[in-house]
Write a structure and sequence with these properties.
Blueprint: H1 10-19, H2 38-50, E1 62-64, E2 68-71, E3 74-81, E4 92-99, E5 106-114, E6 127-131, E7 137-139, H3 149-168, E8 178-183, E9 186-192, E10 203-209, E11 214-220, H4 232-238, E12 244-247, E13 261-263, E14 266-267, E15 278-282, E16 295-298, E17 313-321, E18 335-344, E19 349-358, H5 360-368, E20 374-379, E21 387-390, E22 397-400, E23 403-405, E24 410-412, E25 422-428
Antiparallel strand pairs: 1-3, 2-3, 3-4, 4-5, 5-6, 6-7, 8-9, 9-10, 10-19, 11-25, 12-21, 12-25, 13-14, 13-17, 15-16, 15-17, 17-20, 18-19, 18-20, 18-23, 21-22, 23-24
Helix pairs in contact: 2-3
Length: 431
């Protein structure tokens, strides 16, 4: 493991958290503005491009697309790396075109963009090489007149679009799923994301269950006399009835849950949040109309009031993907491990855990383009708060989020186990 990725102890982590001076995040919504300069357009497209890349090994600071076919005896490969984990963005992107068979042949062109802002003329890390043969090349930026830079940036832009078009033609976003039956109405799925996981492990873990067999029961530390915060293993020890547990949504600095966390008429949260529109409902309906036993309610289209609620349990968070196929989170460059809950077109519920780092918007893209038949989804807390526990898989499965990389925090802590104030338990229904 590189020295800049060594895990910090909890005390050191908290100290760094308080004194860190992070870099500013890129304004990705500005990428949708029509009046961008060519270097700005290049930077925006490079963000898209790095979403197709994965870490080829345990060195999480290096990423690649692997060989990508362009045509007969023509292929390319894109690589990116960072000197240290200080931003969601890599320091350098290299695009190399080859003639010959993938993995063989000779390079014909190579673009190196240091700083991901196009060719500037004053950055010695930039290069645009044309190869005379497999070993000799000429850097077109050497001794270049500044007035000629726009032309080379236009060529760079054209190459970048060629690369992105070829990558978009790769239809699969997830490898084939491997499913394992854990109990009646409950199965565990594993797959690899082929894009969108920008740092770390690209594996996806999904618990899929039938609401006729299991219910989702929120738990708050405030329910218990000791009011103790626990990591997911501690919560599992406190909840022996649960087949699985995972983290709930976000909370305030004083550990109060943000939004409604309702159990049998008692709100252990802070009331209905006026902005967040997702309500996870379970344990019902009790004496109400014919409704699903567990569901995601989108309050943008369906109002929710406690007085008319027929469910025992209600937990509020924010919508990730709605039933109309719209992504309900904005585009940012904030990366983190993620937890989400989704409902598929057969009424089954899915708990999704991503141990690597992705944006919320790209997690929604991943779910939308997967073959899971997802109808709608909500997001829960991410980063170190993302935690998952499942019993008897065949031994207990324990997973902790290890990534937080944004304009405020840059951390990779693979052994850090953060105590959290609220979880959701997957509890078998009594028959």
């Amino acid at each position: 493991m590189p020295s800049n990725q060594r895990p910090l102890c909890a005390a050191a982590f908290l100290a760094v958290f308080l004194i860190a001076q992070p870099l500013a995040a890129a304004d990705l919504p500005s990428c949708e503005e029509p009046a961008l300069s060519l270097p700005e357009k290049i930077r925006c497209e490079l963000w898209r491009l790095t979403g197709f890349m994965r870490a080829p090994d345990l060195d999480n600071l290096k990423r690649t697309t692997g060989p990508v076919i362009l045509g007969p005896d023509r292929w390319f490969q894109v690589e990116a790396d960072q000197d240290q984990l200080r931003s969601s963005w890599p320091d350098v992107v290299r695009i190399t075109f080859f003639s010959g068979q993938p993995g063989q042949g000779r390079p014909t062109e190579a673009i190196r963009d240091h700083g991901l802002n196009g060719f500037t003329g004053d950055d010695p890390g930039d290069a645009y090489r044309r190869y005379i043969n497999g070993e000799e090349s000429k850097n077109l930026l050497s001794d270049l007149e500044p007035t000629l830079l726009p032309g080379l940036n236009q060529e760079y832009w054209d190459r970048l679009n060629l690369v992105l078009e070829a990558l978009e033609k790769r239809s699969n976003v997830i490898s084939p799923w491997v499913w394992q039956r854990l109990a009646a109405g409950l199965e565990l799925g594993r797959a690899t994301a082929l894009r969108y996981i920008r740092l770390g492990d690209s594996s996806l873990t999904v618990l899929r269950f039938e609401p006729e067999f299991f219910s989702l029961v929120p738990k708050s530390h405030q329910e218990y006399e000791d009011k103790k915060l626990l990591d997911i293993e501690g919560w599992a020890a406190r909840s022996p009835e649960a087949a699985a547990l995972f983290n709930a949504g976000q909370y305030y600095p004083d550990k109060r849950y943000i939004g409604l966390l309702l159990k049998d008429g008692v709100d252990w949260g802070t009331g209905i949040h006026p902005v967040w529109k997702a309500m996870l409902l379970s344990g019902g309906p009790l004496g109400g109309p014919a409704l699903p036993l567990t569901r995601i309610l989108d309050m943008q289209f369906h109002p929710f009031t406690q007085a008319d609620n027929p469910y025992r349990y209600a937990l509020q968070s924010f919508m990730l993907l709605d039933a109309n196929g719209f992504i309900r989170v904005r585009r940012t460059d904030s990366l983190a491990s993620r937890t989400a809950v989704a409902q598929d077109d057969r009424g089954r519920m899915l708990v999704i855990f991503v141990s690597g780092a992705c944006t919320l918007q790209e997690l929604a893209q991943l779910l939308l383009r997967s073959d899971l038949g997802i109808k709608q989804a909500l997001a829960l807390d991410g980063g170190f708060q993302s935690q998952l526990y499942a019993r008897n898989v065949p031994k207990d499965l324990v997973a902790y989020g290890a990534w937080v990389v944004s304009d405020r925090n840059q951390y990779y802590l693979p052994t850090f186990k953060l105590p959290i104030p609220a979880v959701i338990a997957l509890v078998p229904l009594t028959r």
